[in-house]
């Protein structure tokens, strides 16, 4: 009878308490961070970084496709275990374990590869010969937002579009001097269209921050979090994560 009771108790325990680590990972079609290959396997920068950590920690992963807003809601309530590329704030920390940072999040400028623009601060953008394309509704950082609101000459230097393809076409037609874009996404777009010999991402950044792996406090045990943090630290120390990032630079 005692053995039977112990079996029932073990079956009732969460998998993580038995040493088994299984993670549900929210993903979306967002290249080059997340995308599916021709065999419908998930790949991309964020996915590769996450998989390296999961493999090091001996965790299994299940990919769950969903929009960002729904993913955050489920993370808060324990319906999904993990989101990658998550910016830190105090409100999210109430329901999220932040592990990392996992990578930088940088907004740069796509320019002609032969251009010699001397850019070291936002004020220098006024000197570009033509306007700069940027996307409606995208956040380019606090400093950019403040200058855009307070400096009319600076704001007039930007031309709004609703998608990256429109901006890239304008750049190719020499209607723009530059395009404001996510650094990794910009590099991906140039390579995808085989025009990376003609254009580059300028070394000057409009904004730079870091993002993290975010794990649900409702769904993940402290033991599992400790194991994942240790795995990440080992990968950072041996350079494995840097080697993954270098493939996307």
Structure explained in plain terms:
It is a single chain. The chain is α/β, with parallel strands linked by helices and 249 residues long. The chain is elongated, with a radius of gyration of 22 Å. A hairpin with a 5-residue loop joins β2 and β3. The strands form 3 sheets. Strands 5, 6, 7, 8, 9, 10 and 11 form a 7-stranded mixed beta sheet that branches. Strands 1-4 form a two-stranded parallel ribbon. A two-stranded antiparallel sheet has the order 2-3. It folds into 2 domains: 141 residues, D-Maltodextrin-Binding Protein, domain 2, CATH 3.40.190.10; 102 residues, D-Maltodextrin-Binding Protein, domain 2. α2 packs across α9 and α2 packs antiparallel against α10.
Beta-strand residue fraction: 25-35%
Q: Would you count the extended β strands for me?
A: 11
Number of helices: 10
The radius of gyration computed from the alpha-carbon positions, rounded to a whole number of angstroms, is 22 Å
Number of separate domains: 2
Helix content: 25-40%
CATH class (first level) name of the largest domain: Alpha Beta
Relevant CATH superfamily of the largest domain: Periplasmic binding protein-like II
Mind telling me which CATH architecture of the largest domain this is? 3-Layer(aba) Sandwich
Main sheet characteristics:
7 strands, mixed
- Secondary structure class reads alpha/beta
């Amino acid at each position: 009878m005692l053995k039977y009771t112990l079996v029932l108790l073990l079956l009732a325990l969460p998998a993580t308490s038995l040493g088994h680590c299984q993670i549900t990972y929210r993903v979306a079609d967002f290249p080059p961070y997340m995308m599916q290959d021709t065999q419908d396997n998930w790949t991309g920068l964020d996915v590769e970084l996450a998989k390296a950590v999961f493999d090091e920690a001996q965790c299994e992963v299940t990919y769950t496709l969903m929009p960002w807003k729904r993913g955050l809601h489920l993370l808060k309530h324990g319906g999904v275990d993990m989101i990658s590329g998550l910016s830190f704030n105090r409100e999210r920390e109430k329901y999220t374990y932040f592990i990392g940072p996992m990578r930088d999040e940088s907004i740069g400028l796509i320019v002609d590869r032969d251009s010699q623009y001397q850019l070291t601060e936002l004020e220098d953008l006024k000197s570009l010969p033509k306007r700069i394309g940027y996307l409606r509704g995208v956040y380019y950082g606090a400093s950019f937002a403040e200058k855009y609101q307070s400096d009319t000459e600076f704001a007039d230097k930007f031309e709004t579009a609703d998608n990256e393809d429109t901006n890239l076409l304008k750049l190719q037609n020499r209607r723009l001097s530059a395009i404001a874009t996510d650094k990794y996404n910009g590099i991906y777009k140039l390579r995808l269209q085989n025009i990376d010999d003609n254009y580059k991402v300028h070394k000057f950044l409009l904004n730079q921050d870091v993002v993290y792996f975010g794990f649900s406090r409702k769904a993940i045990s402290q033991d599992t979090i400790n194991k994942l943090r240790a795995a990440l630290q080992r990968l950072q120390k041996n350079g494995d994560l840097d080697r993954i990032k270098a493939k996307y630079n």
